[in-house]
Design brief:
The chain is rod-shaped and about 190 Å long. The chain contains four helices and no strands. With 235 residues, the protein is an all-alpha fold. The chain has a domain of 106 residues.
């Protein structure tokens, strides 16, 4: 049976001969009741504190769980970001390699095409020079023999000069194209003589001068009253 302070205070004892002093007993019972009241109050206070502590512990456990879940989610997000970043970096590197290979391949193909174009232009230049040389040598042999009539010779010389100029113009144009193509490659090796005419151009110029000189000689013969198809008197 639970005993309360009021039970102690309300407790009555029977009186017998030679019994305890009732006042002393009552005083002691009052002290016990006060002590029990204090114990009960302290018990209630401790019980409230326990309840509060348990509530706080529950809240802390809940927060701990939330923190753990947040930490786990953060680790997961970090791992996913690292994986995504690595995949993105791999894609960038792979794309850079493919672009570099494509650029190198395009540059190689362009270099091959330029080399083929250079060889083609040089071949055309050689063929043009060879054709001009063969034609002019034939015309010079005719000029030396002086076997053509004056009118036919003049017509041929004017035609030859025009043809030489036209072919020389094409040769100069081909040479300019070659220069433009080779200029980026040979920029570092350029010399002060780079602007001087090539040997083939010089040869064409000399042949053209010979043709024009032969035409002028015919004109001078005709001016002095000599037959243009004959040699000078002192020849």
């Amino acid at each position: 049976m639970a005993l309360t302070p009021n039970d102690i205070l309300d407790r009555e004892f029977s009186v017998k001969l030679r019994g305890y002093n009732t006042e002393e007993v009552d005083t002691f019972l009052e002290e016990i009741a006060e002590f029990l009241t204090a114990l009960i109050r302290k018990h209630h206070s401790l019980k409230d504190q326990v309840v509060a502590c348990n509530s706080r512990i529950a809240k802390l456990k809940k927060r701990e769980k939330e923190f753990r879940e947040a930490l786990t989610a953060a680790h997961k997000v970090t791992e996913e970001m690292q994986i995504h970043a690595k995949e993105k970096a791999d894609l960038i590197v792979e794309k850079a390699k493919m672009d570099a290979e494509r650029i190198v391949s395009d540059a190689h193909q362009e270099a091959v095409l330029l080399e083929e174009k250079i060889r083609g232009l040089r071949r055309l230049q050689r063929e043009a020079v060879h054709k001009i040389r063969a034609n002019l040598e034939g015309y010079l042999r005719i000029l030396d023999d002086e076997q053509l009539p004056s009118e036919e010779f003049d017509r041929m010389m004017h035609l030859t000069a025009a043809e030489v100029r036209a072919i020389q113009g094409n040769t100069d144009e081909n040479q300019q194209i070659l220069t433009e193509i080779e200029a980026p490659v040979e920029a570092d090796d350029a010399s002060p003589d780079a602007t001087e005419p090539s040997g083939k151009e010089q040869e064409l110029s000399e042949v053209l001068e010979q043709v024009e000189e032969g035409t002028e000689q015919k004109d001078r013969k005709a001016g002095f009253g000599f037959d243009a198809d004959k040699v000078w008197p002192d020849d």
